[in-house]
Design brief:
The protein has 669 residues and is α+β, with helices and mostly antiparallel strands. Helix content is 54%, strand content 6%.
Length: 669
């Protein structure tokens, strides 16, 4: 009976049954997964006799794995499907899966069955799975009366619908701006070649059409000499989902607060941190205060240096606004570090970078990647199989370039949750790097390469952590405020000269990135870290406060500007509605602090690697075993202690933060 109940489905991927092209096929595929989910739960509830790991937890995990499978692939197709009808259906399916998850989290008979399982002699991973699952049930309100549970279910349904609508408006809210050819001064030649001028049918004047997609937007903000163009691009980018998302966000905040109130919490922020490493909103604020103090003086010095430099170039300039910050940082780095970030773009064509990131990960984690002919959701997607000591260990999908209707951000997503002996782990990167066309080498800024490393760190966590006994703790399934550690740790490998020179080759000449250029790039890249921390503090404090006060009193425009002006020295720009396209408000909700918190841990982790042999030192194997391979089968705090032999400290973070001021760059007079 147990084998029948958890039999592996033959239709593992929605796109193999037409779900990427046909809305009805997608709905049928998700429906089949949910039917298997319900069947496993039904069998669980009919078990007679004492509750055991084998007769109860196995069936519960079978239900979880089907729910995860349906949710993951509905979410992916919501982000990437070429047909809007399929994206619309995928959004409905994602909502249906979320509602099934909400119903499960409030199912008292299932909770009581799990609570009755004897785990005294179970493995530590099994005990952690059960204990964390029971905590999740209690935080969901499973102990409330039926009427309250029904109310909570309806509130979660509303919150899910609002969050999906918020994200969809960002995804489909891309804008275009018009520019005269003369306004493109400063932009790289390959960018200009991709954006030829055309005659305006109304005025007859030449114009260039630019989009708010990352490959169009980011170079404008970094290189365009025309302040007016930078401002227009900034405002277009930061109003992509405005005004639609303003009321949606207010409704979402109110709904989340009502959920927290029903559950007896002061605020959503307290509820959302209760099962995290941080533990409470108060602990988050304590951590943020420490970051604020650590970054304050460095950010002041950086701003003074950049502003003094800009005023030398433009004597009538009295301040720098938010739309010009990136441009003046670039100009300052060119002058003070003799580093022009455009100069390294030819060394980072997309194909070389992909090969380099894969080679780095393969050598570091002792795995092999092989191109696959497996079907994906779009012809542009590359598929790779992962082998570990000759054993097939997983699969990943790279969907790396923009296209119409596709999500515009950079993310890693599970495809199939790995379970030892049942499913191999699969994951995907959904990104928007330049390239993807036959005549476009996809020259990347060095920050793009860092992003690639970052997202690949998530992917390796999903694959190497996807061989656990339980779907409920497989892959990414750690505490939410540990999940950015593997990604931010892998970022640091970009800073190694020998590693980078293995793939950084000029796309036309094949020349290796010169060592002198690398050192200048590294020095220039260190400048601005305090400002980056202040930006993180701005986003973090905004996300925390929006979820830590009475939603009825929130003025989104006022609070967004208030926190910006507290943390950032760059002038606010009227018309900035960044909250309407701040996508992390739906996923991380109040817990955007994860990035800053995990940066501290990640830097401490990276400090354990031998800088003379990053890919070959013993730390790589130890990190894989004690952190990545665990998936979510241990608390994050234990994984930190297993790898470091202690809790994380601020020493590596402080060195990283102050590295720029250890150079010969003088402080302003």
């Amino acid at each position: 009976m147990l084998t029948e109940a958890i039999a592996v489905t033959q239709d593992l991927h929605a796109w193999e049954t037409g779900g990427a092209e046909n809305a009805e096929a997608l709905s049928a595929w998700v429906g089949a997964r949910l039917a298997e989910h319900e069947a496993a739960l039904a069998r669980l509830l009919t078990v007679a006799g004492p509750r055991t790991v084998e007769n109860t937890l196995r069936l519960y995990d079978a239900a979880i794995e089907q729910l995860s499978l349906a949710g993951a692939q509905a979410g992916i197709l919501n982000s990437v499907a070429a047909d809007k009808a399929v994206r619309d259906q995928a959004q409905l399916e994602a909502q249906r899966v979320a509602m099934a998850g909400s119903a499960l989290s409030l199912n008292r008979p299932v909770y009581e069955a799990l609570a009755a399982v004897d785990i005294a002699d179970a493995s530590s991973a099994t005990r952690h799975f059960v204990e964390r699952t029971l905590l999740g049930y209690r935080l969901a309100g499973v102990d409330k009366d039926q009427a309250t549970r029904d109310h909570l279910h309806s509130l979660h349904e509303k919150a899910t619908r609002l969050a999906l609508e918020f994200s969809r408006n960002i995804q489909e809210g891309g804008k275009t701006i018009e520019a005269a050819p003369s306004e493109l001064a400063g932009l790289p030649p390959d960018y200009l070649a991709r954006h030829p001028a055309k005659n305006n049918e109304t005025t007859g004047e030449e114009q260039v059409i630019l989009t708010t997609d990352q490959p169009d937007m980011q170079p404008v903000m970094t290189f365009a000499a025309n302040a007016g163009l930078r401002e227009r691009m900034f405002l277009a980018y930061n109003t992509r989902a405005y005004p639609a998302n303003k009321q949606i966000l207010l409704d979402l905040l109110a709904t989340r607060q009502e959920i927290a109130t029903v559950l007896g919490f002061r605020s959503w922020a307290d509820l959302a941190t209760a099962d995290q490493m941080m533990g409470s909103a108060a602990n988050v604020r304590e951590f943020l205060a420490r970051l604020e103090q650590a970054s304050r003086e460095g950010a002041r010095r950086e701003h003074e240096q950049v502003l003094a430099f800009a005023r030398q170039r433009q004597p009538d300039l009295t301040s720098i606004d938010i739309a010009s910050r990136g441009y003046w940082y670039e100009q300052f780095r060119r002058a003070e570090f003799d580093f022009d970030s455009q100069s390294v773009r030819p060394y980072f064509p997309y194909d070389n970078v992909e090969a380099g990131v894969l080679d780095t990960a393969a050598r570091l984690f002792k795995v092999e990647f092989r191109r696959s002919t497996a079907q994906a959701w779009h012809p542009a997607v590359s598929v790779y199989e992962v082998f570990d000591e000759g054993r097939h260990a997983g699969r990943f999908y790279l969907d790396m370039h923009p296209r119409e209707g596709k999500d515009k951000w950079f993310s890693a997503a599970p495809v199939t949750t790995g379970v030892r002996g049942r499913y191999l782990p699969e994951a995907a990167l959904i990104c928007n790097f330049a390239g993807g066309e036959a005549d476009d080498p996809g020259l990347m800024q060095y920050s793009d390469v860092v992003t690639f490393f970052h997202e690949f760190g998530h992917l390796m966590h999903a694959i190497l952590g996807g061989n656990t006994e339980w779907a409920g703790v497989s892959g990414f399934a750690t505490e939410g405020d540990f999940i950015e550690v593997p990604s931010q740790m892998l970022e640091e490998f970009f800073r190694d000269e020998k590693l980078l020179q293995a793939f950084a080759r000029h796309y036309q000449t094949g020349e290796i990135l010169p060592a002198e250029v690398f050192r200048k790039m590294k020095g220039a890249g260190a400048f601005g870290r305090a400002d980056w921390i202040r930006s993180q503090l701005y986003y973090t404090t905004l996300s925390l406060d929006l979820h830590d006060q009475n939603p009825a009193a929130i003025d989104l425009d006022r609070i967004t500007r208030q926190f910006y002006e507290f943390f950032q020295p760059w002038n606010w720009l009227e018309g900035n509605r960044m909250y309407a396209s701040f996508g992390h408000l739906t996923g991380y909700s109040s817990n955007y602090y994860t990035y800053a918190f995990d940066k501290v841990i990640a830097l401490d982790f990276f400090a354990q690697f031998d800088p003379a042999d990053l890919l070959g030192c013993e730390a790589g194997a130890r990190y894989r075993k004690t952190v990545l391979e665990q998936g979510g089968s241990k608390p994050g705090r234990e994984m930190v202690r297993d790898f470091l032999g202690r809790d994380e400290d601020f020493a590596a973070f402080s060195r990283w933060l102050n590295e720029e001021f250890e150079s010969s760059l003088p402080a302003p007079a």
